[in-house]
Model the fold of this input.
Amino acid sequence: MSDQLKDTTRSWLKAFFLLLSGLVAVALLVAAPLSGLWLYLSGELAVDRAVQAQSRGFALFGSTVGRNANATLEYKLDLYKTKRPQIVLAGSAGMGSLKDTMFLRPMLNMAGTANSLSSLRASLDAMLALHKPDVVLLALDFWWFSSAWEKNPFAQDPREPSPFSYTMDTLRLPWRMLLQGDISLPQFMFMSFQEARFGIRAQFDDTGYGSDGSFYATSIITAKRAPDAGFARTLDRQRRHIGEFAPQKALSQAHLDALADIYFRLRGRGIVPVVFLSPLPGELLDALKKEEALYPHLFSLRQALAERGIELANTVDARYFSASSCEFVDGTHAGEVAALRITNELTRVWNGLLPYINMEALNRAINEWKDHAAVASPFLPRVIEEDFLQLGCVKRTGPARLQ
Done:
């Protein structure tokens, strides 16, 4: 190699590394601080500010980075510590739509803080370390009793690190969402932030957790076509026997023992546990029924728990308590009206629940909002529910009359 070529190569490499260093400097000096400011103003990581706002009135917390059970637990534990409710709904995200509007005493929806029996135990232990409620409504998913879903229901997995922190990954988030088209340029340029909204989903879609811990699925129910329209995605998973629909030969005694341990420990603390399964739409339950032998952890569960002294409310078949498929958010998540119907059903299992509930208002809401996934909220007056599941559901076509 000639000296001239070596000099040219050195010059090129020097220029390349100078350019690279300049880009890194720009990223560190401009892009990262801009991202940090954007994340702060959007409230994406602001669990503490969200909970403070929710303790004063209505606010939504809908984070993009915190969408798993551990992150939900971190946020809701702060809310729980502040609210100190008398009645708590704990467990499955399938009951996340139940709101406190029909309750006469302080109620908090802690649904979504568990996705298995072991995480249910961990979430309850974390809650009881802060405050003891009078009643815990235990919402379970039938697949939690499958060894294919969780091999050891007594496992004590360490808590995952908090996602609500300013890391390199979260600092890249606004830029990544802009490049992918998830947010627009005006949204990226701080032009669309709302008060009483914390987190990207809350800011731009009015989607997230309200001040009672319940979930507002605004981005789904206002869509012309939801991702699980016709329950096609859920039914496909069931046909392929994957995820929560993995088959099982026999009912796992270890999983029954795990729930019994949770149940009787609550009873031992002077807390009333009311146990039920999150409901399933009729289309899905019929598909499961055709392969009943593959799902003993669903169809034999009630009798097996009764033998252990645990009454399981008969709530898995939505049709049993007159909930239509139109009242679901998707194949495994009940909407608000279906959740109200379940609350009504739970009073039949334990009539001690009656003093906690405004039954007149509850029944009126059920009758007036039949076939809807949500009851009109004074906090989101412009939300108009669509036939998002494309089941031919008849929805109100204008701004709904508030209760």
DSSP finds 15 helices and eleven strands in the chain. Residues 66 and 163 are 6 Å apart (CA to CA). The two ends are 84 Å apart (CA to CA).
